[in-house]
Amino acid sequence: EPMDDAAERSLSHAACAPQSPLDPQRGRYLAMLCDSLKRTIANLPPSDRLRISYYYLQGLTLAQIGCLMGEHESTISRKLAQTRNRIREQVEKNLSAEYHLSADQISSCFEYATEDWPFNLAEVLAQAK
Nearest 5°: phi and psi at 56? Predict the structure, then answer.
């Protein structure tokens, strides 16, 4: 059966309305995440920063990075995974200890970062040298 005009307008309006309002803390969370991530990357050993740069910025394969660094590609893969885990753990620790964020708030930080976040890894790595 066809809907009446008022019901149809109501449904189309609901479909266009945003699903949830933006979190007013979003900008603050991203700023804290950015600060923590920059400091964490700066404190990585140079070899870890180099692997990250080769893989994420220069787009080299694990085999290519292995040749450049004198390591097997499986070692490169393992070390990249370890570095990513250390970065995540340290950033979470910083957000909790320094900014007193809860686990849910930290989760929100990472969720917002997966959206439209202008984090410049190349700039951060260049400054860390």
Answer: -90, -30
Close Cβ partners of 26 (under 8 Å, ≥ 6 residues apart): 108, 112
The span from the CA of 121 to the CA of 47, in Å, is 16
First and final CA of the chain: distance in angstroms?
Answer: 68
Pick the closest to residue 66 from 84, 38, 82, 47 (CA basis): 47
Tens digit of pLDDT for each residue in 65-118? 999 999 999 999 999 999 999 999 999 999 999 999 999 999 999 999 998 788
- Amino acid of residue 75: T
87 token code pair: 């970065």
Query: Hey, what are 34's tokens?
Result: 């950015």
Q: 9-43 pLDDT, tens per residue? A: 444 444 444 444 578 889 999 999 999 999 999 99
